[in-house]
Design brief:
Layout (H helix, E strand, L loop, with lengths): L1 E4 L5 H14 L11 H9 L8 E6 L5 E9 L8 E8 L8 H16 L3 E8 L3 H9 L3 E12 L3 E11 L1
Length: 165
């Protein structure tokens, strides 16, 4: 598996699993009615910061398995803390793409001079992601109760997760 910077042509391969994930309404608080173009603008250009970056995990045969975008969590005085979002195609889950994308993001954040990483809204019922982030050194530093409405779990909390660099 290779992790590389995403290029514009990658969006056509990202969109199907991006759309599937947001319309499921289980792990992202994104508007499920986002159009192809709106989603592309948001995912492929995640921030106006020159530090913003979008990556893809590519299988040996060239298939896009997942994608991540990363950026300063806040502007100005908060720009020393990084954040990111990750999506993996359902057919590729359990193959290490999420871990590889996150490890690449951690390495990027450290190289770029960020002091820490904060994930602002990890759905607590997304236990696979929570366990993965914890295995990569993230701690749950707080949970906003009932901040997310999951179709299968009802109202669940959103974790704020943090990792120093």
């Amino acid at each position: 598996m290779e992790i590389r910077e995403a290029v514009a042509d990658d969006w056509a391969a990202i969109w199907p699993f991006f759309q599937e994930i947001i319309t499921a309404r289980e792990t992202y608080a994104y508007d499920p009615s986002l159009t192809f173009e709106q989603a592309e603008a948001m995912w492929m250009s995640p921030s106006s910061s020159p530090l913003a970056r979008t990556t893809v995990a590519i299988a040996a045969e060239g298939k896009v398995l997942g994608s991540a975008n990363m950026y300063p969590n806040r502007p100005g005085p908060g720009a020393h803390v990084a954040s990111a979002s990750f999506m993996v195609d359902a057919a590729a889950r359990g193959q290490g793409a999420g871990r590889a994308l996150c490890q690449d993001m951690i390495d990027w954040a450290a190289r770029t001079g960020f002091r820490s990483i904060q994930f602002n809204a990890v759905v607590e019922s997304n236990t696979t992601a929570v366990k993965l982030w914890q295995s990569l050194g993230f701690d749950i530093i707080g949970t906003v109760p009932e901040a997310f409405l999951s179709p299968s779990h009802g109202y669940v909390g959103l974790h704020v997760m943090h990792r120093p660099l």
